[in-house]
Amino acid sequence: MGMNTQPMGMNTNQTVIVAGASGVFGRHVVRTLRAAGHTVLGLGRREGTEIRADLLDRAALLRAADGVRADVVVHAATALSKPPMSHKGMYGTDDLRVAGTRNLIELAGVVGARRWIGENIVFGYGYKDFGGRVLTEADPFGGTDPDAGLARHLEGMRVKENLPVEAGLDAVSLRFGLFYGPGGATESLVAMLRKRQLPAFDDHGRVLPWINLIDAANAVAAAIEHGRGGEAYNIVDESHLGFGGAVRTVAAAYGTPKPFTMPALFTRALPYLRSMLTTNITADTAKARRELRWAPVYPTLPDGLEH
Predict the structure, then answer these.
(1) Does the reported pTM lie above 0.85?
(2) I need a surface site. Which of 18, 63, 99, 243 has the fewest CB within 10 A?
(3) What's the confidence (pLDDT) of residue 81?
(4) Mean pLDDT across the stretch 277-297?
(5) What architecture is domain 15-179+210-236+283-297?
(6) So where are the chain's domains?
(7) Strand partners, 263
């Protein structure tokens, strides 16, 4: 990425299509954008969306958009209904990042939208231990990996960022941390903790990026107003917690039984989960704070859980 075009001027009367509007994150985005004064058209397969279509069905998608006009397209579609444990659990989202993005770019052309905001994730920097190095948007993103499953996921992240830029759209990519918060995976984690079904894996000092769903949705609104076309932005909080630390924090916040600690090596039968548990990423957000004028309302996971 890196076209360095100027940001769009402030206009709270824009019409925004949100792909994935019925998903957990999509619902937060829709509420935030409407509160900011935008007209929002939800796109998804579920009843109640203004543009009802499957993002992977190109013909049906373009038919559903016939006669629609919009200024902005937000790609927040995911196939995840729960945290993935295996590589196969990510395949549907990989497809939405590649084929779904291609189809949505065509829809943007049909409806006349020039602005594009894409949801991505900081795992695009790689499923590895980066030690104490703090990653910025200038670091390589969406590379490859000797593991075929990880290579497939990374390709999807890379393609989702690059395709709208290559198509000439005024495209911004938001590289989020792991979502938590209202309507997200937090409730399912709490239910598992209460049944003593969720261990706190031993992280050995590793940290993962986190972000409250409310702060993530605010970043989408900020990107529409201030983001520079062709640029990517890290959107994470300041928690510096690994998965085990996050589980223990959730347990303490909700007063569940204290989770037992399990070594990460016990997850060898769940390769995607193991890849996450052995990843260590710290991402810098100075660019988002400076250019998007964004900062998390909930700086840490305990702050967000208290809310």
Answers:
(1) yes
(2) 63
(3) 67
(4) 96
(5) 3-Layer(aba) Sandwich (3.40)
(6) 15-179+210-236+283-297
(7) 202
